[in-house]
Design a protein that fits this description.
73% of the residues lie in helices and 0% in strands. With 267 residues, the protein is an all-alpha fold. It has one domain. Helix 13 runs antiparallel to helix 14.
């Protein structure tokens, strides 16, 4: 069964990518709009830095690394989860999720890989280019260890992002409605473009525990650069590396619990 799944997944991805690329001009124009949109957000941060020199003790290249890390982790994680799990509410409401349950295939795997969102290409292009500039511009002595930590932390942040989105989407299997939770998610996600230490203690605690999105941005980047991390302190680095795998296990458990509680559109 596992080998069957592994053979089918590339086919699902290829079919979806072909459908997304049917109108290539429109696709790349949309990606350009994404780049300009997020570029303007970073430009706003630049205006703040031009006025105040630093933000929470972070310089312009350090904030560029933070912004690019946050955007890249989100785009990679969301490509595997956001649109697919956001649409799960509609599948549940209409009763069409039932058709996935009778397929000889994992409903989660089918949802994720048949809807792999290559629309995040613009996010990735901007994030990688900005991260490359930040790495070259930042006043930091890079080593094999620090580069390895950056990559491992990025993988963990990607997993954490996908896990949180999966847990939000899976809640629709219990409540039918869950998309309002995404508004809360993105409300906190917007805050993680900035250093954690500029926020009040209550928000810092939420961003590390209940909605741990700081672990996808300023916590791992701050730990890499040797910045003081509120609450976590010297544990910031290790916590950043294990957060992704731990939340993936929690997401798996939540998905299984939610599918076990699912009773169909009729309740």
């Amino acid at each position: 069964m596992l080998i069957h799944h592994l053979r089918v997944l590339p086919l699902l991805v290829r079919m979806h990518v072909r459908s997304q690329m049917e109108y290539r001009g429109a696709f790349w124009l949309d990606r350009l709009a994404q780049i300009l949109s997020y570029g303007s957000v970073f430009a706003t941060i630049g205006i703040l830095l031009a006025r105040f020199d630093t933000l929470g003790g972070w310089t312009w290249p350090e904030l560029a690394l933070l912004f690019s890390f946050q955007l890249l982790a989100y785009s990679l994680g969301a490509a595997m989860s956001f649109v697919q799990l956001r649409d799960l509410e509609e599948l549940v409401r209409l009763g069409t999720f039932d058709t996935l349950l009778v397929k000889p295939f994992s409903p989660w795997a089918y949802l994720v890989f048949s809807g792999l969102n290559i629309g995040y290409t613009g996010h990735v292009i901007l994030a990688v280019a900005l991260m490359g500039w930040a790495v070259l511009s930042i006043d930091f002595a890079w080593s094999v260890w620090s580069a390895s930590f950056l990559i491992a932390a990025l993988i963990s942040a990607t997993l954490l992002t996908a896990a949180l989105i999966t847990m939000i989407g899976a809640t629709a299997l219990i409540w039918v409605r869950s998309n309002h939770l995404f508004s809360i998610f993105f409300g906190f996600w917007e805050l993680t473009r900035y250093p954690l230490n500029i926020f009040p203690g209550g928000i810092q605690t939420i961003l590390i525990t209940a909605v741990p999105l700081a672990l996808t941005s300023s916590v791992p980047v701050g730990a890499l650069l040797g910045k003081p991390i509120p609450i976590l302190g010297d544990w910031a680095g290790p916590v950043s590396l294990v957060a992704g795998p731990i939340w993936v296990l929690m997401a798996i458990a939540h998905w299984r619990y939610a599918t076990g509680k699912y009773q169909g559109a009729g309740g």
